[in-house]
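Re: the pair you flagged

First of the two:
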Amino acid sequence: MTAPVFILAGEPSGDQLAASIMDAVEGRFGKQNWFGIGGPSMQERGLASEAEMAQLSVMGFGAALSAYPRLSALANRLVQRIIEARPRAVITVDAKGFSLRLAARLKQRMAAEGWSAPVIHVVAPTVWAWGAWRAKSVARAVDRLLCLFPFEVDYFTPHRLAAHFIGHPEAFNAALMPRVRDNRDNRNNRSAAKRLLLLPGSRRSEIRRLLPAMHDAHALLAADGTEDSGVAATLVTVPHLRDEVAAVLGNDSGIEIVSGRDAFYQHLHQADAMMAASGTVTLQTALAGVPGVTCYRTSGLSAMIGRRLVRMDRVILPNALLRREVYPFLFQEEATPERLAAHVRAIFAADQMANQMPDKIGTGSGSGNGSGSGSETAGRNADELRALLRGGSDDFETLVANALAPDFGPQD
């Protein structure tokens, strides 16, 4: 009987990425028996989940401290389950705090048992934002690291860790292409009403901390409108948070609430601008060519520690990748309704001016996020990001399978 494969993800974006990893493995190396922790996309592919994925969703230093006993017990239980199952490989996807703790404990148990399996982590911890010295501890915990960004490999190879750039799956996502290629011109031919997309995050803590400011920013923008123009706002959330979002917004916000990936793509293509929580979604909006502003709020303790440890110019992925401000980032007390509205208002004004003077679009020079209208600059950023993140390939699963070949065997 073929040994199973352990795979773990800790949040919705990790669930989608892990599902792509599962597809890549089975496409090259045949059907596998999967167990671990994951969400609906992984379970659709046959994962037997040992616990609810939501148990791993912890944000902020204070929350992590309070959750430590529970997560430590879960890690110990998973280590025991892995030792009993003897999988052919152990794959963890993102959720770096839990994943690396699990990997370190598993390595100790493997040594004690006289048995081993390759421990593979997908999504490099952001040592380039949090401190390069952390790369050494990552190298001690795992055997192979699959990196989504090309510059990450060089942080880990000096520590003799087998690190591979596999591209970023969103750069291959066809659902993010039409807004850049086909819908950019169509957008300017719609009615005068501007379309604003609100993306407050996929965690309850993010909804509580960010959505009130986004709601009030929308109200400020709506007040700018006239009888012939206005702002039509749509908020995209995950299905299990829809009721909580509705409770925060109230009954008369004028903001449409939708949920699910299909709704996200549909409204992304229609948006003139967006407000988003920092995270993977900012890369998706950038690849789709949507201009906007990003923000984040956390506890006072987490903010204080974060300001000391994190390079704020690298928090937003498109900014870090292109080494310029693709999206303004408003952190903590900076994330006010007035500042959010001001950034969106500037995007609307730039697009309106570009529509009135189409011959001037893209003819000037500038710094930061470029010249021309907000949508034109966003489109150029999208093209540059996509080229950077595809790793010279047209297929993400091929890059993944190539990186995993030493652990799963030759091509069938």
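Second of the two:
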Amino acid sequence: MNFTLGIIIAVGVLVAISLVFIAMDPGYLSGIPVKPVACTKEHVPVCGVDGVTYNNSCKLDSAKIELAYPGECVIEKPLAEGWTRATSTQHPGIGHESHQSVMILPLSEKVYSGTLYYNATEPIQLITLHGPLKDGEDKGQAIWTADGVTKYALTFVNPDNAQGEWKFAGNALVIHTKKTTPFSVDYMVEYEEKAISDSVITGTIQSVQDPGMGHESHQLAVIFAPSSDVYSGILSYSASENIQLVSLRGPIGPDEHPEKTWTADGTTIFEMTFVDPANKMGSWEFSGNAIALHTKNTTAFTASYSVSAVKSGGMVSPISAMPIAPSTHVISIANGASAPGCETTNQCYLPYSLEIIAGDTVSWSNGDTAAHTVTSKNSDGPDGVFDSSLFMAGNTFDFTFDEPGTYSYFCMVHPWMTGEVIVNEKFNELNGIAVGEPNPSEPVVPEVVTPIPVPEPIPAPPAPEPTEKRAAPVEVTIPQGAGTPGCETTNQCYLPYQVEIYSGEPVVWINADSAAHTVTSGLPGTPDAFFDSGMIMPNQTWQFVFTDSGEHDYYCMVHPWMTGKVVVS
């Protein structure tokens, strides 16, 4: 009995001990161990709060990390000194509601001009505005409006890149995409904002028959008429059709024989720079004694534009001997260039090829998240002309090219990254390229325009003496500023607008303006060949003796809003 009781007690003690161990280790009763879950290789990236991109949510959970947001982690690149970062919003223009934009410079009554440098997360378009337009001025050019009432002409340029630079002039500056999703852009803009003047203009102009000899079947819209002043600046334009760009230098001397010339009378001759950008919207950096838009068509075109120029006295020197002031050009290292692939489209350095003038400086901006080098090379490797060494994200490297030639370069860390800089002689054609596109096309082959001989005038038969003899000829003054629209509203383009004389008396026209003008009989666009002064340069005069009685209307072929009248008794 006692033995049996002892066994029972011993068993009870063992059971109690077992229960204690079970309580201490619940897994003791778990049976078969639970195998870990195997994550698939499905690529649905997610970003963890630790800033690491995981292949999918399973791997994020396995790492016991909380989700920050779907998609790959975005590593924000450092912002270069002097630059601004902005994120786009819905574009405010009517018809652009599904587009995105960043307003760089807001609408102004003044004219902005300068250079925009940009580095966006995707390819963008560039916009500048001109206006506001008056009623009836929207005649085929691109138009922008936020309310359907106040309208602006639109210069819209698609450089088809995410990084680059653009020279512009206008009443506003915008970076734009045609997508609904926002984009981000880093930018720096170097600009001036100037009030409207005789050399800073925003306006709309209708072309007229080109008064140049040999160009009678062409159309011309004069921005700055031939002048003794030299205009240098930036023009942005929006036309109703593709146009060409013209600048004149002169009048040239008898010993000068340029390849391409323009003349209205066969006597006063200008050297002509003729650029065909093959577009109806763009920008142009220019210098010359006259600036105009041109087509080889017989029908008129309309163009809205903004121009900001400075005037300097005296004729511009021949193009072949005019040194161009050194400037700085930006090349961006594309985000993601450290991974192979950008070399297939030559987009590791943007632009891949840059054409500059000897003495210019190139600044490479590292827009990638990785470090890079800019190292000159030849077929054998580095040639020692220039080498940036390793420079980090957000930094720049500058080098000034003094010698003409073609310089190839690459990144020593990522050798698939290549680019080139083409350095031209210092005395190149002066600003003879359109800059609406970052990479200009090949130079235009000059077109020689041979002046047509002017026939000698046939002497008029003697006229009867007037009953009253004047002491001096009647004078008509072309006032300062007549080359800018506005004087026609008060008939003050020629002063006086109307003169009355007797048959056989002369009229003398005095050009007191800084621009060249003509005195051409007829109505604007329809000369009647009774008299034509040709180009009257500033401070010059032209005289004509009237023998036929009647009313003789006349106008300026260069500025067709300028009209006057001579009444002969």
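The mean pLDDT is 84.

-B.
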